[in-house]
Fold these 2 entries.
Entry 1:
Amino acid sequence: MSATMAPRRRMPRPARIGLYVFLFTAALAFLLPLYVMVATSLKPMEEIRLGNLFSLPVKITLAPWAQAWMSACTGLECGGIRAGFMNSVAIVVPSTLLSILLGALNGYALSFWRPRGAQAFFVILVTGAFIPYQVMLFPLIRALAAMGLFGTLPGIVLIHTLFGMPVMTLLFRNYYAGVPHELFMAARIDGGGFWRIFVQLMLPMSLPIVVVAVIMQVTAIWNDFLLGLVFAGHDWLPMTVQLNNIINTTTGERLYNVNMAATLLTSLVPLTVYLASGRWFVRGIAAGAVKG
Amino acid sequence: MGANTVLSDLDLDVAAGEFLVLLGPSGCGKSTLLHAIAGLIDVDAGGVEIGGKDVTWADPKDRGIGMVFQSYALYPTMNVERNMSFGLRVAGVPKTEIATRVERASKMLQLDALLSRKPAQLSGGQRQRVAIGRALVREAQVFLFDEPLSNLDAKLRTELRRELKALHRDLGATMIYVTHDQVEAMTLATRVAVMRGGRIQQIGTPGAVYARPANMFVAGFLGSPGINFIEGAAAGAPAVLGVRPEHLALHPAGAGHPEAEVTLVEAMGAHEVVWLDLQGQKLAAIAPSTGAHQMGDRVGVRMALDRAVLFDPVSQERIEGPAGAFQARWR
């Protein structure tokens, strides 16, 4: 005869309802703008002129999307946001690779080799992460111009790499701090030098945190506006800057549907990155925290 | 190391083929000494010689050593075979030679079925064997062990301990082994160096260190249950008598021996540890497990004074001279 089980603890009804109401409201607050954007981008201008912001499109049209992509005007040119997309890709890929590589190298050197002054160097580096970009803009412009890199693709890649270093170094140093030091000692006894241990041992072990770093850097660099505006030069303006140009260029009527479509196109990349790898993001953070 | 001096004025000579155990409590500097020998820590003064060669400033890989760590320290992204051959690949040893050495070591350690597994797929004992195999393939002159059995459960520990002893017998290599477990020290060592506070308290064969400890710390560190210390005097000066539990014999009360009351009996299976209160002093005695002693019994205690040792209470060093001269000072 089994003993009477204690009744399962349940939240009282009013509290449960209150919780759901809160969650629903919060979700609404985030989803409503997105809904408005998607709905507006699928409406023809006649419907938008009617002024009903929240209504579903009566006649769904993809023309605004095509226009945003190929023929919207970004200032004097009317080539759509497509050029900006290619520029953003050309900026994001090398910047992500370089900043992650350098961050990993820094974190590895600081964690295991601990050269003299490593602590001071690390503090200075991380402090750099807290200085607002705006403070450093003008000196950087002068420096890049002196190097002949101002307004070039290598220039903007260099800038993004530099600004990404503090956070990436912090990320990797903390990850490597969780790797047992005995592993490093064993590799040194086996004859591994600085580069071999990094490439053959540490990098393969870093996969979870590399995924986290990639997600962070891709979204940060893709979404960046200020640095792209200042340093990329006219030929390499990223998608975010082109978007701003589209929205601010009016030839008569404001084409809200095209603007909405352009905005959605710009945010597709980071959105896809999150949706595809959000699971890995959580796994990566957890793997860094608890080392087996 | 930094602002702390962990080891000072330490001289150690290890003969070829011997199994030297560095024994001591946490923080005594034994691991520091091992890492200094390995070259993982730089020495501030003095030097290290291995096989007649001065290796004080040599890289760990050039010292002719192999090392086994407490946490196995296996490379997690590589399988067993690549774990064991990593050092050889770094050194540029030809592939055929690598294959031969890995095969020989894996046979010796019963790892041949596991060569393609990753460390995460191995048990604790298997991982430790791989760690030992990784040191073996280097065909080093000196093997360094940093508390290799501490992470294993008790049964596995005794099993691997015996395998290590057999390995030493088969290889005949010099082995330096760090542990805080005095059982490992007693069973494995050809010589034991007991350390405390960065200094070697005594070096000798396990038997010598056990039977004739140089000071009270060494006496108390070896043996389980620990040695009994009795305060008293000898030849007019204060002295402390150290007598081991196995050298106390329990007789029925009233036979002329000093009387004590049994305070606790610990049944160990093969024998019993009987805790006594002898006129204010707490002693432990080992008795056969007949169940003859119960809490509260009064017994007579006879001590084998020829096996006991005298210590100076101030310096804690051993005093030479027969223990028979000892007069206990009971409270």
Entry 2:
Amino acid sequence: MIRHLWVALVVVLGGTSEVLATVASTAIYCQRYPKAAGCESQQASCNICHGGPPSLNPYGEDLAEALTGPIDQTLLEALGKVENLDSDQDGVSNIVEISNAGAPGNRLIKPETNVELVYDTTLAYKRMKSVYCGQSATYDDMQRLKAAADQKAFLHTELQACLDGTYWRNEALFRLADKKIQPQAALGFGGNVVIADYRWDYRLFAYIMSGDRDARELLSATYHIDEAGNKVEGQIGRQEPAQTGQRIVIGGGQPLAANRRAGMMTTQWFLAFYTMFATLPRNTASQVYREYLGMDIAKGEGLQPVVNEPRDVDNRNVRQAECAVCHSTLDPLSYAFSTYVGIETVRALLFNSNGTYRGSRAPWEAQGQIMGQPATDLLDWADKARNSEAFKKNLAKMMFSQALSRDPMPHEKQEFDLLWQGLPADNYSVNKMLHRFVDTTAFGGRRP
Amino acid sequence: MKKLLTIGLAISVLVACSKGSFKRPSSKGKTGTEQATGNGEGVNGGDGSENSGENSPAGLNLVWKRYRALEDGLMKGLGLPKNQVCTELGVHSCIDTIHLTVLGGNEPYVSGQYERVHSPTVLTAVAVDRVVLSACGRRLEMDRTAGTSAVVFKHFPLSGGAPNADQVKAQATELYRRLLARDPEANELQMITSFAGSAGSPDKLALSLCFAIGSNAENIFL
């Protein structure tokens, strides 16, 4: 109680800027503990110290007590002071947890050595049916599993049937895409103010994520999928005519030239919805970075500052230190998107221009960087993104979380690493990765 | 109805206590080791974010059978078409609309729910009970009308005198197979038969059995 009061008092009297963490804090943490969970991929984030910002977890509370001044100046020293404490009281000291992929502020996560699970085919089968078929295993199913000469083979045969089924392809994968697409019925096909048709986005996502296709096409596809499930090459016109009045329809189809496309990040909906009227499409770039590379800049993840950035090319006053800590990464990340139209009005009504390419829209297209590498244009940007380690990790994590409703835990790190590391050998097939996934103890393990 | 619910809940607890794996997930009283090793029961809790990295004391290693699989189990297990499982006001689907969120789904297009909750909410148990009781009740009425052609509740007459122990065991076995995909264990049958005598009329016993077995944690967490 005293600790809570102390923290509250410091926040009130000292001002939040001195006490609450900044994104630089995670950099300092990773500087001291480069092998800590998340630091190897620059993704150490708020939950090291926070249960859910602004509330602190026990480790964060101990750190807050150990601070002697502004966090950016005294954190390094404070980290050392609390190393030998056991903040989350799980029987393992903070430094041992940090050094062994544990979590010093979460008593449920300890170093991986404490876990012992055995694989249970029956459990894995029931889970598989629920997650990938949207079904409950029946008594007959269980009898067939029991009678199978090779239960693992039976499991995989059934899994393949699920992955080819309508639930997985038309429902589960659609729900997996929601956060990436963020549809709004009022702005999509049939809505009151139609800026684009997100149904194309859902179909493209589900198509690429199924059927043993190369998942990197999420960021490279130059085609689209029509309602019948067929590939459509080239530009696609509006399905309903442009109009104003009671309803406004200025978008629809896929008007972007095929040679300017990069899969999900260049659909008309994605560009219109995330860029909107922005000259520099920071929101668009950060959404790709978050959803397809697993790095949320708003959480201090994936920060790779570029020298002499941010230049504040659109006069948004982002040069001040508090802004620059993120914008030195975000702005260079966004330059390649600046030649793609977001939302227009009259021109969109007449020419369906939302989400199209226009080289003259901004002069910064070739000045960008992604993950420390220069990007000459958006196609180059997408190429570097989809071939990165971050893309593979994010894909594996996405499927892991979809199935188990949680992130991998420290004791599952080895299995998780094998999942994403095996993607190239699987030709980036999500289906093949899922076949490997259901064989892990993370998916089908239980207490001996 | 209140009495019926009480009976159902009572038998649910009884059945749950008869087998370790039946226990409802609890966030209390677990040791750190149980939690960390994923040996606890239940699914993640926390702040509602799948990527929060913060897991609840409820356990780390169970999978929540979400809305579609739950619905499928009731449809197949009780031989019901989709529109007979559960509707509110006879119109709105419990699964697809009214209780979708707390049963683990999300509606993105109109509601703007771009993510599902990653763990059951405080209302999930209520919604599960509502859906299971509705489905069981519907099957009971269909079988009452069907008479000798009954599909699920066919092991003792739904009206008249109390069923004998063998009939109760046969009905319970039928429901275990249909809803939990396994045969009941001897101690489970014993507990059910000992309860049957105080369950009231045969149709109430039948409904209570269906509700208790169908809403059991074993049917919700994998």
